[in-house]
Amino acid sequence: MKLEELATALGAALHPGEAHLEGLPAHLSSLEITGMAGLETASPSEVSFVANPRYTAAAHATRAAAVLVEPGFAPLGVPTLRIKNPYLAFAKAVELFHQGPIYAPGIHPTAVVDPSARLADTVHVGPYVVVGPGVQVGAHGVLLAHVVLYAGVKAGSHLLAHAHAIVREGSILGDHVTLGNGAIIGSDGFGFARDEAGAWYKIPQSGHVIIGDNVEIQANSCIDRASIGTTTIAAGAKIDNLVQVGHGSAIGERTLLCSQVGLAGSSHIGKNVILAGQVGVAGHLSVGDNAVATAQTGIPNDVAAGETVSGYPAMANRQWLRASAGFARLPEILRRLARLEKAAAVDTTLPRMSDPAHL
């Protein structure tokens, strides 16, 4: 693809570089682009991007044929493709050069499909797939090897279930849902009650899971079914690897749950929320729309809409940054305190730091 063609496809404005690099064609329209790459590794036939100002120096040193940048970015020695959201443009450009695998419709001979299941004619069913009674899968669905759909599962069009994904009974999936390897939808919620002898009695998990359109749930994540009612993942939500969503929880539209996030039962997470890696949310709490929790935050209380929190227990991010800076200075502060205590012990005119009257 020519560089000029790429610019047109992305809706970017093409600008020549500030310097003529060796081997750069005289006319940008004839510059052939073979793919996309990072700033440090891009070759003179590949395009890269800058979405963070801290990579400005790398952009000036890159050998890339061109760089996707924001409209106000300073000129580079190579051509630039100027667009409002270079990171999104980079993602779309990668799609132009990298076409994913295409799966032909049909059912593999080793698959087991219940006679009552209803699969669209365009569905691909791979080796050793199991499709239970009453299952429905819409047009262009793809079930790769060892996928299991329990009884009564209903999935819309363009389902992509990677190998070993499991969807438990009664779960409902919208259109364009992607399930990563080993993802489990509708596993039993963790609910037990003590009996008179102190033993744990399992609470039946009679509810189900509803997943909206354009949701992606990546490898080895678990979405528990509710004991009563539903666990819901709203349209556009994205869930990373190794995430646990407890029974009866609700995840809002376009929310991101990063790797190793854990939500206890009945967590209510709003729209456009970002929970970074290893965030934990206690049960029956609410996280408001557009809130952000930084990595390893522990959330024991509700979080207001639009708030950014950090640490454990979760506090305002700026307060946590100050507290963290103070924690790093504790050894120095303790040494200074010990010297003051020693001086107070020698000089009787000085009050001791441990004297309650002084405190």
How would you explain this protein's 3D organization?
There is one protein chain. The chain is 15% helix and 26% strand. By secondary structure, it is of the alpha/beta class. The chain has 3 domains: 3-97, 3-Layer(aba) Sandwich (Udp-n-acetylmuramoylalanyl-d-glutamate--2,6- Diaminopimelate Ligase, Chain: A, domain 1); 106-318, 3 Solenoid (UDP N-Acetylglucosamine Acyltransferase, domain 1); 329-359, no CATH class. A 12-stranded mixed sheet has the order 6-9-12-15-18-23-26-29-32-35-37-38, with helices on one face. Strands 7-10-13-16-19-24-27-30-33-36 form a 10-stranded parallel sheet, with no helix packed on it. The chain has a 9-stranded parallel sheet with strand order 8-11-14-17-22-25-28-31-34, with no helix packed on it. A hairpin with a 4-residue loop joins β37 and β38. It is flat, with a radius of gyration of 28 Å. The N and C termini lie far apart (74 Å).
DSSP strand tally: 38
- Tell me, rounded to a whole number, the average pLDDT: 92
Number of domains: 3
Q: Please report the distance between the alpha carbons of the first and last residues.
A: 74 Å
Total of helices: 5
Radius of gyration: 28 Å
Helix content: 10-25%
Q: Write the CATH architecture name of the largest domain.
A: 3 Solenoid
Morphology call:
flat
Give a brief outline of the structure.
The protein is an alpha/beta fold and 359 residues long.
SSE topology sketch:
Blueprint: H1 3-10, E1 13-15, E2 35-36, E3 46-49, H2 56-61, E4 66-69, E5 80-82, H3 86-97, E6 106-107, E7 112-113, E8 118-119, E9 124-125, E10 130-131, E11 136-137, E12 142-143, E13 148-149, E14 154-155, E15 160-161, E16 166-167, E17 172-173, E18 178-179, E19 184-187, E20 192-194, E21 200-202, E22 208-211, E23 216-217, E24 222-224, E25 230-233, E26 238-239, E27 244-245, E28 250-251, E29 256-257, E30 262-263, E31 268-269, E32 274-275, E33 280-281, E34 286-287, E35 292-293, E36 298-299, E37 308-310, E38 315-316, H4 317-328, H5 330-346
Parallel strand pairs: 2-3, 3-4, 4-5, 6-9, 7-10, 8-11, 9-12, 10-13, 11-14, 12-15, 13-16, 14-17, 15-18, 16-19, 17-22, 18-23, 19-24, 22-25, 23-26, 24-27, 25-28, 26-29, 27-30, 28-31, 29-32, 30-33, 31-34, 32-35, 33-36, 35-37
Antiparallel strand pairs: 1-5, 20-21, 37-38
